[in-house]
């Protein structure tokens, strides 16, 4: 039975190469972890339309190069923080976001 405020969703945790969700004292994924995954998914998916548009039009004139560099740096630091904190929602969201930002940055530099 799950404790109040948690879902009874079983997740793999352990030391044998299994995924850790930062919830070492229980084998259920708690509400805050699920919230983290949802928030990460939404903020990551929000970048996809811009990447697709830029890729199709081969045009990024309205996107600031300095903004992309600063944003990529910040997202990379969040990714590192997630790794050090063993926080899978932060690792997943920022890892995928970083790839999208780097694609957009590549388009920006290629089609100046």
Uncertain parts? 7-13
| Helical run tally | 4
How many strand elements? 2
Question: Can you write the helix and strand succession as a string?
Answer: EEHHHH
Number of domains: 1
Distance between the termini: 57 Å
**CATH top-level class:** Mainly Alpha
Estimated helix fraction: 55-70%
Radius of gyration: 17 Å
- Give the name of the CATH architecture: Up-down Bundle
Strand line-up in the sheet with most strands: 1-2
- Give me the CATH fold name: Monooxygenase
Dominant shape: elongated
Content-based structural category: mainly alpha
Residue-averaged pLDDT, rounded? 83
Major beta sheet summary: 2 strands, antiparallel
User: What percentage of amino acids are in beta strands?
Assistant: 5-15%
Give a verbal description of the structure:
The chain is mainly α. It has one domain (31-110): Monooxygenase, CATH 1.20.1280.290. The chain is 62% helix and 7% strand. It contains 4 helices and 2 strands. It has helices spanning 31-45, 48-57, 65-85, 88-110, and strands at residues 6-10, 28-30. A two-stranded antiparallel sheet has the order 1-2. The longest helix has 23 residues, at 88-110. The model is unreliable at 7-13 (pLDDT under 50). This is MtN3 and saliva related transmembrane protein. InterPro entries: PQ-loop_rpt, SemiSWEET. One of its GO terms (molecular function) is sugar transmembrane transporter activity.
């Amino acid at each position: 039975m799950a404790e109040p405020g948690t879902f009874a969703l079983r997740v793999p945790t352990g030391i044998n190469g299994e995924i850790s969700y930062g919830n070492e004292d229980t084998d259920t994924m708690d509400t805050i972890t699920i919230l983290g995954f949802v928030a990460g998914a939404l903020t990551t998916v929000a970048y996809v339309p811009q990447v697709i548009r830029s890729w199709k039009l081969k045009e990024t004139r309205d996107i600031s190069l300095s903004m992309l560099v600063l944003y990529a740096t910040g997202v990379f630091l969040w990714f590192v923080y997630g790794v050090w904190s063993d926080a899978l929602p932060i690792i997943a969201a920022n890892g995928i976001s970083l790839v999208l930002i780097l694609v957009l940055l590549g388009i920006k530099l290629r089609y100046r």
